[in-house]
Design goal:
By secondary structure, the chain is mainly α. Helices cover 50% and strands 3% of the residues. The protein has 2 domains: 9-86; 92-183, no CATH class. Helix 2 packs antiparallel against helix 3 and helix 4 (92-112) runs antiparallel to helix 8.
Length: 201
């Protein structure tokens, strides 16, 4: 059986965040987030594979289920490999570009959020919050937006779409926050949970 192919930046000459596992037969992205984004699901797949392999080794499977279990194991392994191979490995300029956009979007998202104190005290206007979430007011890199399956209009995206980009790029970069709530300021102290370093990663 052919080995799943890694989608790399050099092959496509562009940054790709959604792999084969995330697309339909026509190559159209069919999911909101890449499969590798959900690390718990990958852990569950590995656990399921391990459970079935241990059961097979102990011969705990009824003889009539042996062949079907082998096929299930094969499909699970292929699926897991496809997911893990679909996560891009950024290097050099591509990694710098993604980090700079990740940092930029994080700053823009933070500036558009009500403070934690305002949210807790009910001082945030629901109408204004909905407006900030859905209106396109944040500048975004068109190439990276496309890689995140986000539409750019007039060079801008909504905060919801910026948050999606922030989360996907954060997952690809690794060791950086992907939860946008960590960006929210505290009104009383002005402190935030996340401070982006000036240097690139």
């Amino acid at each position: 059986m052919a080995r799943p192919k890694q989608i790399t930046n050099t092959e496509k000459n562009e940054i790709v965040f959604f792999g084969e596992i995330d697309r339909d037969e026509k190559g159209v992205v069919k999911s909101e987030y890449p499969a590798y984004y959900f690390e718990n699901n990958i852990e569950d797949l590995h656990e399921e594979i391990g459970t079935k392999e241990r059961a097979s080794a102990r011969k705990d499977i009824n003889w009539e289920d042996v062949e079907s279990t082998k096929k299930e194991l094969e499909m699970l392994k292929i699926k897991t490999t496809l997911i893990e191979k679909s996560k891009p490995k950024l290097k050099g300029g591509d990694k710098d570009k993604v980090y700079n956009e990740y940092k930029h979007l994080g700053d823009e998202i933070r500036d558009s959020m009500f403070t934690r104190t305002e949210m807790m005290k009910g001082l945030a206007s629901p109408h204004e919050e909905a407006k900030r979430m859905t209106e396109r007011g944040i500048k975004a890199d068109p190439e990276l937006a496309a890689a995140c399956n986000v539409k750019v209009v007039g060079g801008k995206v909504s905060r919801n779409d910026a948050s999606k980009m922030f989360k996907i790029m954060g997952k690809v970069l690794g060791d950086v926050p992907t939860n946008t709530e960590f960006l929210r300021r505290d009104r009383n102290t002005g402190k935030v949970d996340v401070v982006f370093p000036d240097e690139e990663v």
